[in-house]
Design brief:
- There is one protein chain.
- This protein is α+β, with helices and mostly antiparallel strands.
- It has one domain.
- 52% of the residues lie in helices and 17% in strands.
- The chain has a 4-stranded mixed β-sheet with strand order 2-1-3-4.
- A hairpin with a 2-residue loop joins β5 and β6.
- The longest helix is centred in the last third of the chain and has 25 residues.
- The radius of gyration is 15 Å and the shape is globular.
Length: 132
């Protein structure tokens, strides 16, 4: 079976992994293949994906051949699992640059953000309060 999207994610990022687990759960038609960039032999399996770059900005392969990055990957993944209305504004021309800027800030600081709001494999604002 061919997938519409290969979604490359950072499995060492608890918040990222939480999103991937949610998307996996909602992907009833198996349209998305999730690949952890930290898996053994990643570079051999995906020679066209630069692991360092994929660790800095979300990467995906759309329809088997098109490399997409950042919120384009997020948009397609959430759209494929039925959340088009929720993620539609991410790609609206008037808002796209603003959301891309926010994403780039998040991507750069995702590990520190995760450490602030995640504890014991749980990510929430309540987890932040438990850490204080």
């Amino acid at each position: 079976m061919s997938h519409e999207l290969i979604f490359f994610f950072d499995g060492l990022c608890p918040l990222c992994t939480r999103e991937v687990n949610f998307l996996r759960q909602k992907d009833h038609k198996n349209k998305i293949l999730f690949e952890d960039i930290n898996q053994k032999n990643f570079e051999k399996k995906y020679k066209t994906i630069n692991k360092k770059e994929a660790g800095e900005v979300l990467h995906g392969i759309w329809n088997g051949n098109e490399l997409i990055k950042g919120l384009d990957v997020t948009y397609q993944a959430w759209r494929l699992v039925g959340y088009s209305l929720l993620v539609g504004p991410l790609r609206w021309p008037v808002l796209r640059n603003f959301f891309d800027l926010l994403y780039n800030i998040f991507a750069k600081h995702r590990h520190s953000i995760s450490s602030m709001i995640c504890s014991e494999n749980t990510c929430s604002l309540e987890a932040q309060n438990k850490n204080e």
